[in-house]
Amino acid sequence: MKQEPEDSRRGLSASRIVGMTMEAQDGQQRPKKINLRRPDIMEAVQAQVLSHYRSNLVERIRANGHVLSVPGVLTVKLAKEFGFCYGVERAIDLAYAARKAFPDRRIFLLGEIIHNPEVNDQIRRMGIVTIASRPDDAEIEAITPEDIVIIPAFGTEVATRKKLEARGCTFVDTTCGDVMSVWKRVRQYSKESVTSIIHGKAWHEETLATSSQARANGSGHYLVVFNLAETDYVCDYILNGGDKAVFLEKFKGAYSDGFDPDLHLKALGVANQTTMLRGETEEVQRRLRAAMERKHGSERVGDHFRFFDTICGATQDRQDALEKLLKTPPDLLLVIGGYNSSNTSHLAEMGESILPTYFIKNGSKMVSTGLIQHWDQHKREEVETRDWLPWGPLTVGVTAGASCPNNLIEEVIERLFELKGVEIPGLPPPVS
Ligand code: SF4
């Protein structure tokens, strides 16, 4: 099992906090490291982040074996791994540190720092201005060398970074190391004229950034497959050919400029968005490998197919923990997180296949015992379910995506107890 770095098991991350600035010199943009992790900055950042996102109740539940129970009425079972991951903690720390280090400079954020609306609202309240994750010319031209630009945890596209470098602004780069590992893999495929097949969501910031790496050297191709049905379509094309125009229309927006399925499906390397469902990613690579083996023979498949597991440790740990929790299924499952959060959506998907599951972004979505508003990821809209909270003794599973702060988990648990009409029981204090 992949493990999160020890120093990030919150408390607060003690991760390296280093930004990068590009200085104009002889017309060239040169990278220069700046360190935001000065003790004076970090002390203030840690206090502020704790005050915004920490939950005493969640820490006490953790210390109580992840269970909170009023026997005969309500038992909450919290997954063993949930909520903020090391990459998210680091991104938030860096954004807060940037504000502290540059109190008088304009700070811009490319899109969202992470996929959680409450956290993004908080960042905006600190005077950090959101611009598009792929800024247009007007937004780029408005950036000056005096400005700070924060790159979010998912990274940014190569073209956007280059345009911003040309403006001479200072970057605070919060791209997660696990995302950068995928980039490295995709760049390697590209150098070896291997087409990157990226299992991911073509519209997601991380996958947009990753796929841009396949073109970073000017050549190289990619194709993004979202699910097993799309994978099967690609496998069938590899084995039997087909109508190129139909293929290109089906995958519109999910392949590189100049991609030709008749030319660029001969040598494939699979990578995945870090937050996909692990079992599905394994099946994607298994099916593509089988197709390449049938096409080229088992002795030569190594020349035509590569695979590297790029699911991140945090995603894997949260999926493993939920799988364990669901072995003895509770009566229902609450999955907490931003509706555009990929890793959260996969937790909800795991639950849906086994028990009533509600994907909510905060406690206010539990309107009453008779009504809950929750995200339906298949319809891609918030829907309402009536009579969702059964009468009588109830066990509720709770988990949260990697971008969900503990204070929102607390809010959901408190609301559950309120709706069941019981006080939250006393618990031992959290282990410090
Ligand atoms: S979910 Fe994984 S890849 Fe994304 S920020 Fe967290 S650790 Fe990094």
Key phrases:
single chain; 432 residues; alpha/beta; Rossmann fold; Cobalt-precorrin-4 Transmethylase, domain 1; 3 domains; six-stranded mixed β-sheet; five-stranded mixed β-sheet; 15 helices; 18 strands; 39% helix; disordered N terminus; binds iron/sulfur cluster
Summarize the structure.
The protein has 432 residues and is of the alpha/beta class. It has three domains: 6-35 and 86-176, Rossmann fold (3-Layer(aba) Sandwich), CATH 3.40.50.11270; 54-84 and 313-420, 4-hydroxy-3-methylbut-2-enyl diphosphate reductase, catalytic domain (Cobalt-precorrin-4 Transmethylase, domain 1, 3-Layer(aba) Sandwich), CATH 3.40.1010.20; 178-307, Cobalt-precorrin-4 Transmethylase, domain 1. The protein is built from 15 helices and 18 strands.
Question: Approximately how much beta-strand content do the residues carry?
Answer: 15-25%
User: Number of domains in the coordinates?
Assistant: 3
State the oligomer.
single chain
- Radius of gyration (Å): 23 Å
Q: Which strands sit side by side, in order, in the main sheet?
A: 2-1-8-7-5-6
User: What is the residue-averaged pLDDT?
Assistant: 91
Main sheet properties? 6 strands, mixed
Shape, principal axes of CA atoms: globular
In the CATH scheme, the class of the largest domain would be Alpha Beta
> Which blocks of ≥5 consecutive residues have pLDDT under 50?
1-28
- CATH topology-level name of the largest domain: Cobalt-precorrin-4 Transmethylase, domain 1
